[in-house]
Amino acid sequence: MSLISLEQYSEKQNRAINRVLDTLDRLDARTSAHYSEKRAHERKAFRGLVWLSIPDGTQEFDQAMTKVWSRSISQSGLSFIYPMRIYETQVRVGVPVGTDQVTWFRAEIVRQKEVEEEHFWEYGVRFLGKVIA
């Protein structure tokens, strides 16, 4: 899969990012009481950039990598938005730690939802373990 980098987002997509994140936060606030009891780990708001790597046809992750906007994070996973549908379920996510370090996790896409009016997708991933270099 060919990934779109943040630099390739259209002007319209760049303007939509905060609206999408705000909309998803509002929806989450309405349902948080119901789902918070079912979650194994507490979710924290985390609006920031994380790395996303999707395997190419050879199952190599390093070939297709980009930054995406994250919305929330927990010990067991995170949520991010991306302007395209991702069909693969196994991905790698790089979470910034400090100013110049990234911790990579093997992850599985467990939830996806289209935010139709903004032409973005929200993804929820479950961490499967750290990537050992």
Structure description:
By secondary structure, the protein is of the alpha+beta class. The protein has a single domain (6-130), classed as predicted glycosyltransferase like domains (Thrombin, subunit H). Helices cover 20% and strands 47% of the residues. It contains one helix and six strands; from the N terminus they run αββββββ. The protein has one helix at residues 11-36; strands at 44-54, 64-74, 77-82, 90-97, 101-115, 120-130. Strands 1-2-3-6-5-4 form a six-stranded antiparallel barrel. The longest helix is centred in the N-terminal third of the chain and has 26 residues, at 11-36. It starts with 10 loop residues before the first helix and ends with a strand. The model has no long low-confidence stretch (mean pLDDT 85).
Task: Annotate the secondary structure layout.
Layout: H1 11-36, E1 44-54, E2 64-74, E3 77-82, E4 90-97, E5 101-115, E6 120-130
Antiparallel strand pairs: 1-2, 1-4, 2-3, 3-6, 4-5, 5-6
Notable characteristics:
PilZ domain-containing protein, 1 helix, 6 strands, alpha+beta, 6-stranded antiparallel beta barrel, 133 residues, globular, Thrombin, subunit H
